[in-house]
Design brief:
This protein is of the alpha/beta class. The chain has seven helices and nine strands, in the order ββαβαββαβαβαβαβα.
């Protein structure tokens, strides 16, 4: 789980990774026989029983620096990814976090460019709202209308959703299912709730060097065993 790729010293939410750090992290993956792919490619491979060696890479919020900073690094290492933009704020800024660094977001033309480059695009809602706290009509708009808008921009079926703040419960999960999504990404759902509509992810930050990545990899394996046992 990535967010922004840029140089940033003022980052209280730890959502920024430099392009150099991303390059080293992807080098670490490739050095261990792993390859970063989109969630769509990962799930397709899993359906064929061929997911071994693949790691889903996701970029939340749809920061404009994905196009300028992250995509060149991904191409260098022959990796894919899924980007989850906030559809109602395309071309704007991440003003849902006023105390954090101000960052520009991808606009519709940027979305078309990354789609043409083979990057999967999924929805992160319309406004980056905590979905568990909104009324039903707002939830429907955040989940359903964002999918429709992204399909119009990309010309493709939108298969994935990403819960803003990782905020998900049974009602929100049901709305995502009803909207027709194939999968949804969470952060660290309860093992009993995990599944294709609440996929767990590992947060990756600027401080994650090889040793920390290996520790997170082992923790992820332990979490997966807990899911399989639940």
């Amino acid at each position: 789980m990535y967010h922004s790729v840029a140089d940033c010293t003022d980052d209280p939410f730890n959502v920024t990774v430099s392009a150099d750090r991303l390059d080293r992290q992807l080098a670490w993956l490739r050095g261990r026989g792993l390859r970063g792919v989109s969630m769509r490619e990962l799930l397709d491979a899993r359906a064929r029983g061929e997911e071994r060696g693949l790691v889903g890479l996701t970029f939340d919020d749809g920061y404009a620096d994905f196009l300028t900073a992250a995509l060149p690094v991904l191409r260098r290492w022959q990796c894919g990814a899924t980007v989850f933009p906030v559809v109602g704020r395309l071309g704007g800024e991440n003003d849902w976090e006023p105390s954090g660094p101000c960052k520009r977001l991808l606009d519709a033309d940027d979305i078309r460019l990354i789609t043409a480059a083979g990057v999967e695009v999924g929805s992160h809602g319309l406004t980056h709202a905590h979905l568990t706290g909104v009324p039903d009509d707002t939830l429907h708009a955040e989940v359903h209308h964002s999918r429709v808008l992204l399909a119009e921009i990309t010309g493709q079926e939108i298969q994935g959703f990403c819960y803003p703040y990782g905020s998900v419960d049974a009602r929100v999960r049901a709305a995502v299912h009803a909207a027709g999504y194939r999968y949804a990404c969470a952060t660290a759902p309860d093992p009993e709730d995990a599944g294709d509509l609440a996929l767990p992810r590992i947060h990756i930050g600027q401080a994650d060097t090889g040793l920390r990545l290996e520790m997170k990899r082992r923790l992820a394996r332990a979490w997966r065993r807990a899911v399989e046992a639940s």
